[in-house]
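Q: Give me the 3D complex with AFP.
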Amino acid sequence: NSDGDVQRDLDVQADAILRRCLSKVPVAALASEEMREAQIGDREAKICIAIDPLDGSSNIDINMTVGTIFSILPAPDDLALAFHQRGSAQLAAGFVTYGPQTSLVLTLGEGVDIFTLDRKAGCFRLARAAAQIAETCEEFAINASNRRHWDSPVRAFVDECLAGVEGPANHNFNMRWVGSLVAEAYRILTRGGVFLYPSDARPGYGDGRLRLVYEAHPMAMIIEQAGGSATTGRERILDLSAQSLHQRVPLIMGSSNEVRRVEELHCDPLLVASVSAPLFARRGFFRL
Ligand code: AFP
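A: Here is the predicted complex, encoded as structure tokens.
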């Protein structure tokens, strides 16, 4: 696509299906991961929509859960500013997972409800009302192969998770990494957890991998509406507004206690040093 991602047939087909459906309802402006620019539609309409038509599409060949993410915003007077609004301006957000169940996760700003598709009846049935994320968690999700590229606060947080009950966290963690944001988010809504896709030192990953407008903003609204938190490590995701449509942003989201710990480590270099020092001494790389 325009931002350099490998496009798969299903990415393009999902985008076409969604745009065809959305052409039948009043939408003032539509933005998609698969479109270079936003499209202006019905100028009298009251909403603008941003979509990631098929998130996780690198998992299609391995039959792993993928999904559609959407963000619904108010239509500003100047539609050129439609997708430069703060995340907190969103009217609604949601995602659909195509996995063992086809589920719709939806917030209209008053909590998060989860629906499951009933194919026979051709409708989504309410499976879980007012989903809540546990305040603390025992599961973290990060692509650990990038450890050498992370900033020290992220490395310190993951080291604390790995130290488990023997470290400052005082409890053990399990680890998951699906490579599909919608699957990670659904798991966090189901049993808590913290997801990290931070910025890292790889070329092009200075702001991480995930897009602000149609991935991080909608996910942040959902996670906060379910009692969790979503941050870059330094700033609340919903306080941010995009300068460009496909702008990337570091995303740490999930159980509020663990997200708060990541923020503490980002704001306090001395804390990072105190956490990291014992690990170095134990490993013996550097005698302190
Ligand atoms: P694709 O849509 O290209 O599969 O990317 C999915 C994604 O944006 C997000 O859903 C995953 O959490 C993340 O990428 C996985 O990225 P890595 O492959 O770098 O772990």
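A quick observation: The chain has two domains: 9-128, 139-280.
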